[in-house]
From TrEMBL:
<dbReference type="Pfam" id="PF13556">
    <property type="entry name" value="HTH_30"/>
</dbReference>
<dbReference type="InterPro" id="IPR051448">
    <property type="entry name" value="CdaR-like_regulators"/>
</dbReference>
<dbReference type="InterPro" id="IPR042070">
    <property type="entry name" value="PucR_C-HTH_sf"/>
</dbReference>
<comment type="similarity">
    <text>Belongs to the CdaR family.</text>
</comment>
<dbReference type="InterPro" id="IPR041522">
    <property type="entry name" value="CdaR_GGDEF"/>
</dbReference>
<dbReference type="InterPro" id="IPR025736">
    <property type="entry name" value="PucR_C-HTH_dom"/>
</dbReference>
<feature type="domain" description="CdaR GGDEF-like">
    <location>
        <begin position="127"/>
        <end position="245"/>
    </location>
</feature>
<feature type="domain" description="PucR C-terminal helix-turn-helix">
    <location>
        <begin position="295"/>
        <end position="351"/>
    </location>
</feature>
<dbReference type="Pfam" id="PF17853">
    <property type="entry name" value="GGDEF_2"/>
</dbReference>
<protein>
    <submittedName>
        <fullName>Helix-turn-helix domain-containing protein</fullName>
    </submittedName>
</protein>
Length: 364
């Protein structure tokens, strides 16, 4: 490539700089260096390739070489060497300033792009923007919000941002696997987030697997698919709710599907009614020696084990006899028999409510 193959505007004044440097032996002045930076910025803003621009400058230097004057006092071979060193120093200075301006403009463009992307993600996940405008902006980032989307959220032992190695690792394997699919991978509040079309379960399954491995055994929650821009917010909130529920309920599953946990929001929709049920059903357990917590843990293990006493005893590291004694104690205090199908539903619902409402740690 020659200098004729790049726009002449980006070489404006370059030949004059080299000619003057050759004639006087001086270096570029500050204003001349800044002018090269500005040309580099303009080239970057106009989408020119830096490699071609550098080659163009070198071609212009070579074309001008034989016409350059010698520095004063230079003669013979030493004069040739002095002129060459002076010209090459000026060319180096000019090209370096040009490249610096180019890179400066690129960094600014990247920061603007990152800011626009972050603003879009915040608006998308919190629903703070006009939905029509949000849909237009989404296409720029590879999403078509007219379709249904589902959101997966991964939480690990530490907070993550877009530059974190965990994020980069997950992003790399997803790009290799799915290429140009309409997927948005980002971070928010220290968690990894993947937004994918609702009919592409394979994307979220793969993200779940990779995020679980990359976060060294973190937990991933997946919201249900919902249509439209508001659907992304809905799915995201479901995934966050599932993570919060897993924390409060001490669920040990590493992967949570909001669709499998819908009963819990239903149970707590009327918080006052649930609080009344917990107080009236489990309140008498406070009278037990050691308080309500050991007996509440006994009920939790008993119900979680399918009401199999031997399995519940193993989970609690108790003998079956000790477990049976605790169940009898619960029956005497509450008037409800955990083994009686008629009483079991009320007791189990109250136990779930206690875990959701953090009773008895918190007063209801």
């Amino acid at each position: 490539m020659t200098d004729r193959e790049i726009p002449a505007d980006y070489l404006k004044g370059y030949a004059d700089l080299l000619t003057d440097a050759s004639a006087t032996g001086r270096r570029l002045r500050r204003d001349e260096v800044e002018s090269r930076r500005l040309l580099g910025e303009r080239a970057a803003e106009n989408g020119q390739g830096l490699r071609a621009l550098v080659v163009g400058h070198l071609s212009a230097t070579r074309a001008l070489w034989t016409r350059l004057p010698s520095a004063p006092g230079a003669d013979g071979a030493s004069g040739v060497r002095a002129t060459a060193a002076t010209v090459l120093a000026a060319a180096e200075q000019a090209i370096d300033a040009f490249a610096e301006g180019y890179e400066r403009a690129q960094r600014l463009a990247v920061r603007k792009e990152e800011a626009a992307r972050r603003e879009f993600i915040d608006d998308l996940l919190y629903g703070r923007s006009d939905l029509g405008r949000l849909s237009e902006r989404a296409e720029r980032f590879g999403l078509r919000l007219a379709h249904a989307h589902a959101v997966a959220v991964a939480a690990g032992p530490e907070p993550y941002d877009d530059a974190h190695p965990v994020m980069r690792r997950v992003e790399s394997v997803l790009n290799v696997r799915f290429g140009e699919r309409q997927i948005l991978l980002t971070t928010k509040d220290g968690r990894l987030i993947c937004v994918a079309p609702g009919d592409q379960d394979d994307v979220l399954r793969f993200f779940t697997k990779q995020a679980y491995a990359a976060t060294d055994g973190g937990r991933v929650a997946i919201g249900r698919p919902h249509p439209g821009a508001g659907g992304v917010v809905h799915s995201y909130e479901e995934a966050l709710g599932a993570l919060d529920l897993a924390e409060r309920m001490a669920l040990d599953s590493p992967v949570l599907h909001a669709a499998d946990l819908l009963v819990f929001p239903v149970l707590t929709r009327d918080r006052q009614a649930m609080a009344d049920l917990v107080r009236s059903t489990l309140g008498p357990l406070r009278e037990a020696r050691g308080g309500a917590v050991p007996l509440l843990e006994t009920l939790t293990a008993y119900f979680d084990s399918g009401c199999v006493a031997a399995e519940a005893a193993r989970r609690l590291s108790l003998s079956v006899r000790a477990l049976t004694y605790r169940l009898e104690r619960i029956q005497r205090l509450t008037g409800s028999d955990p083994a009686d199908p008629m009483h079991r539903y009320t007791l189990q619902t109250a136990v779930i409510g206690a875990r959701l409402l953090d009773w008895p740690s918190k007063e209801l």
